[in-house]
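Ticket #4471: structure output looks truncated?

Reporter: J.K.
Steps to reproduce: submitted the chain below (609 residues) through the standard prediction queue, then opened the result file.
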Amino acid sequence: MSASGHAEQSDALKADAIFKLLDSGNLEKNETYQTYLTELDSLISKADTQRQLRLTRARCWAFNALKEGQVDKALAFAQQALNTPNLAKYPNNKLDLELCQAWYTEQKGDVQLALKSYNQAINDAYALENLRLVADARGMRGYLHSYQGNFTQGLEDLLTAHSLYQSLNLPAWSRTSLYEIATSYRRLGDYKSAIRYFKKLKTSYIKSKNFDSANAISVSIAIAEEERGNLERAKILFEKGYKYWKSNNRELEQATVAVNIAGTLIKLGEFDQASQYLNEAEPFILPTDEAFYSFMHLFRAQIYLANGQLPQAHKSIAYARSAFDRVKNLRGLTLLQMVQSQLFLKEGKWQQAYYALDEYVKLHNELDVKRLSNYTTEMRTRFNVDQIEKENQHLIENQQLREIELAMLEQNKQQQWIIILLGSVLMMIISVFAYKQIQKNRLLSALALTDDLTQLPNRRYIYIKAQHCFEEAQKTDRPLSVIAFDADHFKLINDKFGHEVGDHALELLADTCRSLISSTYETARVGGEEFLIVLTDIDKPQAFEIAQSLVRRVSENDFSAFPQGFNMTISAGVACLSSTDSKLSQLLKRADDALYQAKSLGRNQAKMS
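Returned output as attached by the reporter:
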């Protein structure tokens, strides 16, 4: 090859190495990112369409959303890039640009449009089987859902993104998603889990000498401690974080911590000091940064209220409400309504105070609904996690094969003749891979249908089995019964004795089922402390007798291996196939209703539908 050919190949390899670094998420300073973009511009030939498009994608993500005017510029750039001729021929590049546009749309404040774009991007990413874009899109949507108070949906997206980033060996993005998972647990009210995740992250950052990130995690722990009620502990952690950013001349980060400290000081009744921190923060907190801008004005309103400056309090409430509304922050709006109610009360405006308090109650109830989900809701609306894992595994395998294929094509652009020599070797590799894949798939298939804790079949397996039994019973006109049961007051067991004891209790419950229920019938764990038994050729009286025996056996178990004061009972619901059942869900619903009847009548008993 010519010297020019060698140079072009060398530049392409160097460009790919830079792209890999940019994609890794390890670059924190925007100036360094821009330097790499400039270098890429000199390395990539204008005729190299694929790398030029990849450079365009990198430029789209390079705008600093924290600087005034940059979000508008980013949106204009993204729109122009999406109008590039023939972009439709490169769907992965097009989708990444659309995702970039959606993210800046969220930063602009149009969260509804951003959420709609994220939903579409996730569907398209799955269709393209692009693992990285699936992780990015679900991570962004998960953050938005969590911030808005949709914790179940948020955690589902974030846990999926975290799993995918780990599979892709992207530790920086994996840590980012883990941070958002911890934050979601904090917002959900599970402070113990949140702090555990935060401390794990902090240790990781300290080991890698990333002290800026470690300090940011300390601030997050402080927020969790404040919401947990440990105000003095939170104050100490906030002050340490504030001093760290101040000593490193990081004014924006210093300002964000100042807003957080103010919230803690207000709860401690230290209003003057809280006001000083907010004065320091205000020049650096822009309206485009809704998260801190909204709470900064909410805290201002509380201080004004405490000092009797009521007109100023109303003004701050208006600023805060506008920012909370833009991002649909239900949690923030709930707090705001309480402050406004207190403000009206102080002014003697009783009717307005009542309306504000009534709205607070409505928002608080709505937030509780989003925080809490019961078994029936999960059965009807929750996304199938097993299906997510199956799709993720499929994407991982396909992406690995695609990467091998692309690497081979790139390597052989100027050495086509090598393909003939590699053909036989490749066939051997594929044969070995296929053999190992078959073995792996068999193992994964077994694991996918088994609950890891109890070693009973899981929900996915029992539903498939129950559907088969249901159809068979309808054809042969033979009886079919189901028993739905769960542990009574299981949350109290976890809260009083710890999750490890709770896990042992579930194992004991599974062992009790095995000893009582014949292997001819199917018993499975379908969620948390919830179980389902499918009894073929068993009519309702027999099924009810089995359920009563199970209730009695559980209550009479030997709990001597458990902590003092531990006991456990179950409630069960029994249903038998009837001529009016056209769907399996109808049979399961009746069993579920009978279970709830047993609960409402005092628990530790079985009821028939």
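Triage note (M.O.): checked the attachment and the full token line is present. The first strand starts at residue 480 and ends at 487.
Status: closed, working as intended.
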